[in-house]
Write a structure and sequence with these properties.
single chain; 367 residues
Amino acid sequence: MEKLKAFCKRKNIVFSAKRYGIDALGAMAQGLFCSLLIGTIVKTLGEQAGIPFLVDVGNYASAMSGAAMAVAIGFALQAPPLVLFSLAAVGYAANALGSTSLIPNQGGAGGPLAVLFIAIIAAECGKAVSKETKIDILVTPLVTILIGVALSAWWAPAIGTAATAVGNIIMWATDLQPFLMGIIVSVLMGMALTLPISSAAICAAFGLTGLAGGAAVAGCCANMVGFAVLSFRENHWGGLVSQGIGTSMLQMGNIVKNPRIWLPAILTSAVTGPISTCVFKMEMNGPPVSSGMGTCGLVGQIGVWTGWLSPSERAITNGASAIVPGAFDWIGLILISFVLPAVLSWAFGLFFRKIGWIKEGDLTLAG
């Protein structure tokens, strides 16, 4: 056992929830942003502007999402170069096979989830053999790719089926009980966005679109805009931008010190979620990863917009179709994304400050 521990330490193989559940998951989301998400935005712009070149660029970028996710995961795991480069093939296979399903005539949504599990295992196996032989340039890529592609063929379709089932249950429940599920999805996804995990990766893994995707957008916006406005007196304009357009995760250190500062954002998400699902019936039919982004770079709002004009493949599978958004759609998007989170979080914040649950300086960002 001691020899195994020493070997893992020498190879920088660390079995921990942080490395796999936070570092790798967050990196996977970044890989998605830099391929599928950017590709979808560029493609939609090209289609609307009538520029075929942009459509081609978008298609190429989207096609590389599996490879981009796997390489990003390898980077997070601090994989050596030969392992890192070999993961491109592993990611492509895992994403493609994870997007299939064991159920006939049904596509899978588990591409990103399959990439996460399989790329981690392939990367760690590749790291284990890296530089252990004199023919490292052959051994390391062969081990990484063979293990990764074999696991993709073995596991990925089942992962795709399971992820699709979970995502479909969430979306079915939201359609059936939009008020209750609007609260649940909004609150949980908003909290996931603020926690040091990736709400975007979770939404992508389960393929959340439609009303459930809209509720997820609402919850994420409630946390980002909520904390930005709530902490304005402490952090001023810099904090407003860094949290409102960047990430509410910046408040995690303060939340650990005083969990009550999270209440205004949580309560706000519990209000805006059902307003999104029941009043405006806002659907997020762009790439599922956009559902978990909120106002980060305005990706959530862009996802809603692209879903109106050109629904993603996952959304189309779930029955979505292109629409021409009207004034009511735009008003709903603006209210859910910006106005209501700002007003409600400010009002809840005033109450909690008044009763002493939030004190001056509790929301000050470090540095």
